[in-house]
Amino acid sequence: MLLKALENIESGKFKKKDIVDLLIQDDPSELYRNADRIRKKFVGDEVHLREIIEISNYCKQHCLYCGLQAQNTKLKRYRMKPEEVMERIRWSVPLGYKTVVLQSGEDNAWTDDIVCGMVRDIRKMDFAVTLSFGEKSYETYKKYREAGADRYLLKHETSDTELYKFLDPGMSFKNRIGCQNDLKELGFQVGSGIMIGLPGQAVDSIADDIMLFHKMDYDMIGISPFIPHKDTEIGNNSSGDHELVRKAVAITRIILKDVHLPVTTAFSTLRDREGKLQMLASGANVIMPNITPVEYRKMYEIYPDKDSSDVEPFEYRKQLTELLTEAGRTISTSYGHRIKIKADI
Ligand code: 5AD
């Protein structure tokens, strides 16, 4: 029966039930093997490394799962100066990464002019640019795009609209998708994603998330386990099941074929090195090394014990090369844009 479900998701003629069955199965080894085969066929052995710099932990939102939520008064806040951000990125050039991801809490101090100035300067250093600043107006996104930003990360977190409303007070799922549609229209490559293991989240709703990935045809999808943060309202819940995360990644690879799938940092946090190898062997093809200056890293505490938060970026780069060699993979030297391949099925 599961072989049929596997066949269905590969051929594109699948129903939500096929996804549910694959998510709840006890022995996913065949699923992982298939995901690895599809990954190799459509995106090859290259792994794209995208450096991420977390430029401010101020946030005006109140997401119940996130340590950066505005109401967390225990967190010491920081905001890098634009020159400081540029200096750090210039410093990172010898690492050889080809994409810079600028990420911040939803912080109004980053005016359109400041962000666009940074985007232009980063492009001059021959990087592709990804932005992750949360929900903005169409006009703001348009300015970012005109300044040269290539991609935008805005995860939909969960497609269960009631759960979304509960977890993200004052925000809505509808608005989130609206922002993603604006970004698509403007020609951004759009990254979405979800957390797995949120309180009240059913397997059925994870299947809905994967159906949505397919419908929206996102360019990149980050699937993370939820990790409780003690200073949040849902900090006493348990972490997401890493096997379920891995299954969701594998199914997503088989359905979306040429999509970019990162080894999410939250997954590595739970499983470290072994976790990265597992994810790379079941569909993933992107890793996002953190280059945030050490003095700020601990303060960007979305969830506790973030992966490798104490490893210096040049040392991390060395460790990654070893890990990828061990996994039989190569490091991409291109910008790593999504290349849409028409499925020959
Ligand atoms: N556990 C895992 N991921 C989280 N994020 C926020 N809080 C948590 C948490 N507690 C993720 C969300 C968000 C991204 C910046 O971090 O998916 O989009």
Count of the separate structural domains = 1
Mean pLDDT: 95
* Biggest pleated-sheet summary: 8 strands, parallel
What is the fourth-level CATH superfamily? Aldolase class I
The low-confidence runs, each spanning 5 or more residues with pLDDT under 50, are none
Which features would summarize this protein structure in a list?
345 residues; alpha/beta; TIM Barrel; 8-stranded parallel beta sheet; 13 helices; 8 strands; binds 5'-deoxyadenosine
If you had to describe this structure to a student in words, what would you say it looks like?
By secondary structure, this protein is of the alpha/beta class. It has one domain (32-331): Aldolase class I (TIM Barrel, Alpha-Beta Barrel). It contains 13 helices and 8 strands. Strands 1, 2, 3, 4, 5, 6, 7 and 8 form an 8-stranded parallel β-sheet that branches. Helix 4 (82-92) links the parallel strand 1 (46-56) and strand 2 (99-104). Helix 1 crosses helix 2, helix 4 packs parallel to helix 5 and helix 5 (112-124) packs parallel to helix 6 (138-147). The chain is globular. The model has no long low-confidence stretch (mean pLDDT 95).
